[in-house]
Amino acid sequence: MQVMETIIIGLYVFLMILIGIYFAKRAHSSESDYWTAGRSINTFVGAFALFAALASSSSLMGAVGSGVALGLPFLFAYGFGAVAILPFTLFLVSGQIRRSGVSTMPEFFKQRYGNSVQIIAVCIVVVGMTFYMVPQLTASGLIGSYVLGIDYTTTVIILGIGFTIYAALGGMWAITYTDLIQGSVILVGMFVLSVIILTEFNGFGSLLQSALEVTPHFGDITQPWMSYFGLFLAFLWFGIVSPSAVMRNFASRDARTARRTAVGSCLLYIFVFVFGLIIASAGASLGIADSLSNQDMIFVSVIEHFMNPFLAGIMFAGLLAAIMSSADAMLLAISAGVARDIYKEYINKDASEKTVTRLGFVIMIFASIVGIIIAIDPPGLIAIMVGWVGGGLLSAFGFPLVLGIWWKRANTAGALAGMIGGSLTFLVLVITKPFALVSEPIIAAPVSLILTIIVSLLTDPPPVEIQNRVDSYHTDEPINLDKIVS
Amino acid sequence: MRGKSKLRDPGIILCSVLVLVAAFVLIWWPKDIYVMGISLAGWLMFSSYFVWLAIGVIYIFWIEKWEKK
């Protein structure tokens, strides 16, 4: 057991749980507080929170590990899509979906397309977000078992319960403020590690030279073109199709703040990939990739090699911060999907806000347990698992959502065809694996687009009220929510 | 306001810029040209991070200018 690191991680997790307890009463006072922190978050806090929600274990461990294992250009491809998430989402959906007045993505689908699309959306959100937690729990298990000296399974369970507690207690309030701390820890930790590495190698040039001497393929494109394109596509769309990222948009106090939050997050995310480049180069120079049973552990190996126990403890806390800050947002999206979009909408319309938030609490615990069970025997590398979920969500939601905002003619039948057709195509490709790694959305997303358009055109146009509503997404005139058509 | 012509929406225009830059990188794809031992295709992807930030900043200024009008 690494004592110093264990103490720091223990203190860190304890602090996060305290924040959850601090916000528990406010969070459970209303649904708006639980799901969207009362729509009151400012730019500084929001930028760190959005960045932390997006930058998960895959942006750190997954990107560095795959950069060393599959070549630095693979890490760059990660950022090529990931950094573009923020402007892409800002340009296409953020302002419009804020104007709709909804609080969750399935709620938007209900408003635009009706109940049937909302229900399918909820099912996909719940399954997708649960699976997306698996690589996060896997990463936490790898770090924790290494640092704490406990077996992988026990560590997955302990750390999984840890982040579930504060998320379930404090809702979006706790998630936002823990994300602020976690985002800071991620960046400071990576910065310090990068400075140490550059100092030891006397600059970037000699670091890169050393990496290439030890790992000759480090600078190469080692995978088929479709893998890089698929990775770019899956990450690019993540801010649009990820319910957890979409919910962060609703937490901003106004549109101006939301825009600045997105661009602020973009800048913070760039730092992750600049530091990631340095850390991956150090990993390649160690020449350990082939000796590791799991190449996702390369980041951990770099930390242990270059940092003293105190700094290593902080950096491990930074890795856990990346995990927890994303996983908590996923849990919130799952619980909102079930408690708000299904239970309150269809089962008990008169449910009090307290009942709904309490149900949200229970759903989070349950979803966390399912994620933990799957993470005990994870199906692949962290980067690949995240690519699957991102690609799956894109194939299901991407075009029905964007077309729903920009094309009045998109209708319920078209959205259903696009969602179901895109999801099934993606699943078939994942199971049969006819193409290169993470390239499934290259086929499945266009299938979704074509189905949404063709089926919409072959069926009746949406009612006039819905078409007028689509126009209202693009102006700043107040929306009369009494005219919502379900 | 922006509802008049969606094609003139700053978001659509800047999204097109993003797609063009990405297409340039992915179509050219100079995987066999190396700079400092790293494939140029990789460096192009890395450089694009700063383009993404720049167009995000441009969007903010552009939209707020529209809103003031």
Helices and strands, with pairings:
The complex is a heterodimer of chains A (486) and B (69).
Chain A: H1 3-27, H2 31-36, H3 43-54, H4 57-70, H5 72-82, H6 85-99, H7 105-113, H8 115-148, H9 152-201, H10 204-214, H11 225-236, H12 238-241, H13 243-251, H14 255-286, H15 298-306, H16 309-347, H17 353-375, H18 382-406, H19 412-432, H20 440-458, H21 464-472
Chain B: H1 10-28, E1 34-35, E2 38-39, H2 40-68
Antiparallel strand pairs in B: 1-2
Helix pairs in contact in B: 1-2
Characterise this structure.
The complex is a heterodimer of chains A (486) and B (69). Chain A is 80% helix and 0% strand. With 486 residues, chain A is mainly α. Chain A starts with a helix and ends in a 14-residue tail after the last helix. Chain B has 69 residues and is mainly alpha-helical. Chain B has a domain at 23-68. Chain B has helices spanning 10-28, 40-68, and strands at residues 34-35, 38-39. In chain B, strand 1 and strand 2 form a beta hairpin. The longest helix of chain B is centred in the C-terminal third of the chain and has 29 residues, at 40-68. The radius of gyration of chain B is 16 Å and the shape is elongated. Chain A binds chain B through residues 71-73, 76-77, 79-80, 83-84, 86-88, 90-92, 95, 205, 208-209, 212, 218-221, 225, 228-229, 232, 236, 256, 259-260, 262-263, 266-267, 270, 273, 277, 406, 471, 474-476, and chain B through 1-3, 6, 9-12, 14-15, 18, 22, 25-26, 29, 31, 34, 36-39, 41-43, 45-46, 48-50, 52-53, 55-57, 59-60, 63-64, 67.
